[in-house]
Amino acid sequence: MHVGLALSFQNLISGQTDTEVYRNELQLAAQAEANGFESVWTPEHHFTDYMLTPNVSQFLAWVAGQTRRVKLGTMVTVLPWHDPLRVAENFCLLDHLSEGRAILGIGRGLGRVEFEAFRTPMGESRRRFTEYTEAILNGLETGTMEYDGELYKQPRTQIRPAPYASFKGRTFASAISPYSIDLMAKLGVGLMIIAQKPWEMVKTEVEGYRQRYLALNGMPAPKPILTIFVAVHEDRNEAVRMREVYLQRYARSTVEHYEFGNVAFASIEGYEYYAGLARNIQKHGLEKFNGFLADLQVWGTPDEVLQKLIGYVDYIDAGAMLVMLNYGGMPADVARRNHDLFVSSVLPRLKQYDVGGDIGVRHTTPAQAAE
Length: 371
Prior knowledge:
Layout: E1 2-6, H1 18-31, E2 39-42, H2 56-66, E3 71-74, E4 77-78, H3 84-98, E5 102-107, H4 112-117, H5 125-142, E6 144-148, E7 153-158, E8 171-174, H6 178-187, E9 190-194, H7 199-217, E10 225-232, H8 236-258, H9 272-284, H10 286-295, E11 298-300, H11 302-316, E12 320-324, H12 332-345, H13 347-351, H14 366-370
Helix pairs in contact: 2-3, 3-5, 6-7, 8-10
């Protein structure tokens, strides 16, 4: 199975400088290929301690220069914050610099602080995401950007350098709301699953997506990419402590950054799903929801972590796994031990688990899927 390293660049430790955060994470990125990871990823975030990742394609270009084989993925590029033409140019350039190793991960964003700083109305994000995605995917296939939509209008323009290769099969979206999942099926885009929902709900939505994808595209969807935060330790009691401290702190930072408890989402077009989530949090309490988010992740001894990860892969029939190993205010030495133990005791066995192909590969033929 394809296993990638995801880097968060969180700065949740009092007194830690951004320079120290980058020094520690860049070391992990530079060593990823030698350590056996098959791809390197990072999300896009701005302006807060939550994640210091404002320019993902620039970071991935740096990784490309440090490596020769690993794929380079965005987890995700938030399209409403960008000019679509620049996104297409950036990924064409990254693909040339890396000789075809780029993976385009896209999403529409949720952080209010980021939308406000970019002066982009959140209520337009769904429509912008739909139009931008259509324009970018067509531009990456044809080498020409041209679009006449409600919110995005682009006169015919050539992309230079021209696309290195097709991005079909290597474009994925982080889709949480039911509308977004259905949209990805319509656009022929794979799913990137970041654990924020009950696994039973995720499985139901993935199955619905696969049915829609096949009906609309005449071929099966690529298997989804699964992103998990991992805490591993030889001592199970210490692994439990890592869950209680670092996974909980990650969960709390996520709830705070995205304002999951804000019922005002109900008044914002495209974010009605999150208003329901906020009401649920108000009913059951914020700490309980933090624990729920933490418990969607994986912690334990190396054997326990391996079995849990494989269990999630099997449950949703995933085709690739991305692991976060430094998060939630981990001191550098704790993060390094977590990373090194995963690399030595979990990664080799996880890579040996056969899911039928590499990331972005369609794992069945249309005829097989119809049987």
